[in-house]
């Protein structure tokens, strides 16, 4: 194998591709990147048996071939090479030579035959959606994916297609995040994409309106984003009936400026640490939300202006869960919909229902502030 190409393009491709490399495996090839040089292109592939990624870049291929190189070492070398052309070659003993300017490295490679085959995906359903829109939808729901695997299906986000609407839903037992947008797809289907895969998709997505394609098979999903293709296993299991989890009633509706409320919660949260935990007590009443927090370090109170319709309510929240919902809200103002002090609070846009966050309350002690 022998090829030359641009250092910046190679460095960018390796940086993205190596995120699908297994960090620790008994199979050395899984800790590497497969390089395939042919027909004026270099294709790079990585696969950890759950998540795979490929891309190809333009190269001057003098001799076609395939070889696996350790991803960490190859990435570190390429990143530090001078900004000139890079020449890569390998011999029959799988020794790769990397040249750029005065720099030269010889590293031991792994035969391409030891790299696992990507799963074949057939009978797929195709969805097209703009990059900027999917980026927004994933960003607004990924934070609520479960971190532990007590119920593995909740370590991913549910994608639900019905009536030409796409819903993405995440739950972790303490909160729920949902985002809904219209899409051009006639099919109705449900599938759960692992949170790890969505984190990588998010990094590849741009802010432009250019469309990407998602191909859904029985056990895998393929995201085709610009020059990158990402394949992931889907999670199996019974996802929470999120519709049943969303409370129907509303006795209090509050409209508040998102940033002002966020700032106020952040201020009273300064007394809370990993060791000293305490709920943020919120009193929602006409014209203002009063916030209180008390820990062994001291006490804090704050307030923020709002518009309230309905009953006054006093309720407590885990500060981190409340902040996650507020920080991932889009728009200058949000609606807070409550049905008493023991029912989850809904966080919605000021108008419409393009997103919905549920935050479970924390039972308050009857201490005075």
Description:
By secondary structure, the protein is α+β, with helices and mostly antiparallel strands. The chain has three domains: 2-114, DNA Polymerase III, subunit A, domain 2 (DNA Polymerase III, Chain A, domain 2), CATH 3.10.150; 125-243, DNA Polymerase III, subunit A, domain 2 (DNA Polymerase III, Chain A, domain 2); 246-362, Proliferating Cell Nuclear Antigen (Box), CATH 3.70.10. The protein has helices spanning 7-17, 71-80, 131-142, 195-204, 242-245, 258-268, 319-327, and strands at residues 2-6, 32-38, 41-47, 51-58, 60-63, 65-70, 85-90, 95-100, 103-108, 125-130, 156-162, 165-171, 175-182, 189-194, 211-216, 220-225, 228-233, 252-257, 280-285, 288-295, 298-310, 313-317, 333-338, 345-349, 355-359, 361-362. It is elongated and about 75 Å long. The model has no long low-confidence stretch (mean pLDDT 94).
């Amino acid at each position: 194998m022998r090829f030359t190409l641009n250092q910046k393009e190679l460095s960018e491709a390796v940086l993205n591709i190596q995120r699908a490399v297994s960090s620790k495996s008994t199979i050395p090839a899984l800790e590497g990147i497969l390089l395939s040089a042919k027909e004026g292109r270099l294709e790079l592939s990585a696969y950890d048996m759950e998540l795979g990624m490929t891309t190809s870049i333009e190269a001057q291929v003098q001799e076609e071939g395939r070889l696996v190189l350790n991803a960490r070492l190859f990435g570190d070398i390429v990143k530090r090479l001078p900004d000139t052309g890079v020449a890569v070659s390998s011999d029959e003993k799988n020794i790769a030579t990397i040249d750029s300017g005065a720099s030269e490295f010889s590293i031991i490679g792994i035969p391409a035959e030891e790299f696992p085959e990507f799963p074949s995906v057939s009978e797929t359903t195709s969805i097209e959606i703009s990059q900027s829109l999917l980026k927004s939808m994933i960003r607004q729901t990924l934070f609520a994916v479960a971190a532990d695997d007590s119920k593995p299906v909740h370590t991913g986000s549910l994608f639900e297609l019905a009536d030409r609407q796409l819903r993405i839903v995440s739950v972790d037992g303490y909160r729920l995040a949902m985002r809904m947008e219209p899409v051009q797809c006639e099919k109705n289907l449900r599938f759960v994409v692992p949170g790890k895969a969505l984190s990588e998709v998010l990094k590849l997505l741009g802010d432009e309106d250019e469309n990407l394609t998602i191909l859904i098979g029985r056990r895998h999903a393929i995201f085709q984003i610009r020059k990158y293709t990402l394949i992931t296993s889907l999670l199996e299991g019974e996802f929470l009936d999120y519709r049943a989890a969303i409370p129907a009633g509303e006795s209090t509706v509050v409209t508040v400026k998102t940033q002002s409320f966020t700032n106020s919660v952040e201020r009273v949260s300064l007394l809370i640490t990993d060791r000293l935990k305490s709920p943020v007590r919120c009193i929602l009443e006409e014209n203002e939300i009063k916030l209180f927090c008390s820990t062994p370090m001291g006490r804090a109170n704050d307030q923020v202006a709002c518009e309230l319709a309905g009953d006054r309510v006093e309720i407590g929240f885990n500060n981190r869960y409340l902040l996650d919902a507020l920080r991932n809200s889009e728009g200058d103002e949000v609606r807070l919909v409550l049905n008493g002090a023991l029912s989850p609070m809904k966080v919605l846009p000021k108008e419409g229902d393009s997103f919905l966050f549920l935050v479970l309350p924390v039972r308050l002690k009857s201490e005075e502030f």
